[in-house]
Amino acid sequence: MTKVEQHIVLETKNLSVGYASKKEANIVAGSINIALQKGQLVGLVGANGIGKSTLLRTLTNVQKPLQGEIYINSKSILDYTSVELAKQLSLVLTEQIASKNLSVFELVALGRQPYTNWVGNLSQEDLVVIEKTLQQTNIDFLREKKCFELSDGQLQKVMIARALAQDTDLIILDEPTTHLDMYHKAYILKLLQKLAKETGKTILFSSHEIDLAIQLCDTMIVMSKNEVVSGTPCKLISKGTFNTLFPEDLIAFDEKTGSFRVRK
Amino acid sequence: MSIVLVICFFVNISLGSVSIPTKEIFKSLIGGIDNESWEYIIQNYRLPKAFTAILVGSGLGISGLLMQTLFRNPLAGPFVLGISSGASLGVALVILGSGIFGGVFASVLVSKWSVVVAASLGSFLVLLAVMIVSSKVRDTMAILIIGLMFGSITSAVVSVLSYFSSAEELQQYIFWGFGSLGNLSWHELFIFFLIYLVGILMAIASIKGLNTLLLGENYAKSLGLKLKQSRLIIIIATSLLAGTITAFAGPIAFIGLAIPHMTRQIFHTSNHKTLLPAVFLFGAIVMLICDCIAQLPTSDYTLPINAITSLVGAPVVIWLLVRKRKMFF
């Protein structure tokens, strides 16, 4: 049993991310060594412009790492074919989907694409997975609605359901809580926590909701100017890592409440 | 809808400058008609014309659908990529340029086949240029704009050519520009059909990829779609369809843009498994109807088909823009 819990889904070795031009490499963040366990909810936090998106883009193979390697289930991300990778890693992005004329069911069903035949017909197994996903994310009652009829919170749930239907060991979400009100922010993150536990998938998300993330995540990755640190929220708090997140002139981290306070 | 298509097909055949009783038309199709000239008209003029209308309508509709999904832009169409303007340039060079480049070639060049070849070549070259550029540009919107730029370059060249050419040549070019469904022999229709078939098959093979593209390119990639490859197939399919249609029937406007929108409104779906056959049928039906109107039933005149399709298409575009708040694709 302990062996299962030790299963590492995503691992980076001495990873540097950034942008390479012809003349020079602009390293946004370097020496990133993280290992994410199966079934964990992982929060990635950091100030604006610190390179959260760059890191996520690199982890999802949208851009190439400047240095170091990324392993998903012990296999380098570069050795996967595109369809194979799609069975390991699913995404929820910040960008809007191109067509909102799709129904919720159709959108979630698109998550089954890596498994369907050349014309995209859904097999019995695909339908079972889709039904289960709709139940797990509590959007079964929305199934016939068109995407343009949904609220932001509902749409985000649908996008999570689509990623879930892709049935991958790792789900990566880029700022899933932006544009949402306080209740829905907590709701979405709580849902992610539940899904990680129930399905044994590793869920990595970036967020600015640091206090919520501290309460809900199994592991957190904190990006600050000089280093990228990961660990359980408790450990990071006692190490004082959150104090390094922002310049200290305006807000300070309060260890007792696990949240930031404005300096008076 | 297939039934409507069959009805339109027969209505289309039965209309023309020479009125032939409906009964006789059915007879001639089975092959037992007494009046030889009627039989000749139907078999060698009206039947190929009706088939051409079906190919043109469905082909343009489908290529418009492919472009709109690929570019995530409801206003995209085969014309926007510069494919049709490339064909126009090819034809303009042959018809208008023949006078400029010397009289020896003129008689050889200005035959029907040279027009077809020139149009195909023109659209293919513009497409090739767009494709070379698109391999360097990642953003699909940039490709769209580049296609538009190629379009304006070619139309500028056509303007310059027409400035230097004679009235007769200009007239010939303008007549080509009107578009025509009725000038194809069975032999030409066969070649047309073969190329068309390749384009359609490529479009069918792209159905899954097209549905994935509805999410946007980044999501499509994360679902394991080989983006560059499917983009290439979709663009080639479009150029085969739009290029040959323009070559054989002239630049027929608006069908490519309007049909996919009308179909989406009627079927309330964006799923290409439904849309593709629906656009096929709907495009063919609309084209047959347009051709019926162009015949001006019971009259000796035939209106240019391009004018009719624009008369149908332009109001649709305006209607779309007015309703923009509720336009989804």
UniProtKB/TrEMBL annotation, chain A:
Pfam families: ABC_tran. GO terms for molecular function: ATP binding; ATP hydrolysis activity. It comes from the Bacteria. One of its GO terms (cellular component) is plasma membrane. It is found in: Cell membrane. InterPro entries: AAA+_ATPase (IPR003593), ABC_transporter-like_ATP-bd (IPR003439), P-loop_NTPase (IPR027417), Siderophore_ABC-ATPase (IPR051535). PROSITE patterns: ABC_TRANSPORTER_2. SUPFAM superfamilies: P-loop containing nucleoside triphosphate hydrolases. It is a peripheral membrane protein. Keywords: ATP-binding, Cell membrane, Ion transport, Iron, Iron transport, Membrane, Nucleotide-binding, Transport. GO terms for biological process: iron ion transport. Residues 10-250 form the ABC transporter domain. Coiled coil: none annotated. This is Iron complex transport system ATP-binding protein.
